[in-house]
Write a structure and sequence with these properties.
Radius of gyration: 17 Å
Number of helices: 8
Structural class: mainly alpha
Strand order of the largest sheet: 1-2
Distance between the termini: 17 Å
Order of helices and strands: HEEHHHEEHHEEHH
Number of strands: 6
Strand content: 5-15%
């Protein structure tokens, strides 16, 4: 792998590892601290795409995926109060969601490369984040996919409650997904600032 890609690979690996650790700690009733670090993966992918191109971005995504798989394998061996910290459904959901959403982000960004500077990162991140959230929470917690890991009781996630405590009735996992998605959207907008600063600094250095 080109040494110029190393900062992107290291940044992606750090985000994936940090998110896997921070997801164990609650932030309020609907989120974990990992919800605030994980969306930065889209920022890293978009910067690599803008500066070095689509192939470089894909390499960074696959590196992050491998780190995520390693984290999941380690998590399955660590026992928490209610069993392994990472269940099969969470591992499968996390891997599928990450790879699908990140590669989608890369493809959309590449197609919009010639658009205004902010359009590609915003639109690709919003679409990628939406797909990521939908895939992960559905695979990990939806009762309709219980066959993935029959021994894993996630009935708690199906408890019907007001959405985010104030909205229409919905399964708990839907509220968790919606809160997670809102954070991703907010960070996609805030991330435009570091995206602009970093790409302007790096672009002149690209051969």
């Amino acid at each position: 792998m080109n040494s110029k890609y190393l900062p992107g690979v290291l940044a992606m690996a750090a985000i994936v590892v940090a998110s896997n650790i921070l997801v164990q700690f609650l932030f309020g009733q609907w989120l974990t601290w990992g919800a605030f670090t994980y969306p930065l993966a889209f920022l890293v992918t978009d910067i690599m795409n803008r500066v070095y191109g689509v192939q470089a971005a894909r390499r960074v995504v696959f590196a992050g995926f491998l780190v995520g798989v390693a984290c999941s394998l380690i998590g399955t061996q660590i026992m928490g109060e209610f069993g392994p910290l990472v269940t099969l459904r969470i591992a499968v959901g996390s891997g599928i969601a990450f790879l699908t959403a990140q590669l989608l982000d890369v493809a959309i960004f590449d197609r919009m490369r010639a658009a205004k500077w902010w359009q590609a990162p915003v639109i690709s991140s919003v679409i990628g984040s939406s797909v990521d959230t939908a895939l992960f929470f559905t695979i990990a917690f939806s009762a309709s996919l219980a066959f993935i890991e029959p021994a894993n009781d996630v009935s708690w996630a199906g408890e019907v409650l007001p959405m985010l405590g104030v909205g229409p009735q919905a399964p708990l996992w839907v509220s968790l997904a919606f809160a997670d998605w809102l954070v991703k959207l907010a960070i996609a907008l805030v991330a435009l600032i570091p995206f602009r600063i970093i790409t302007r600094k790096l672009m002149p250095q690209v051969a």
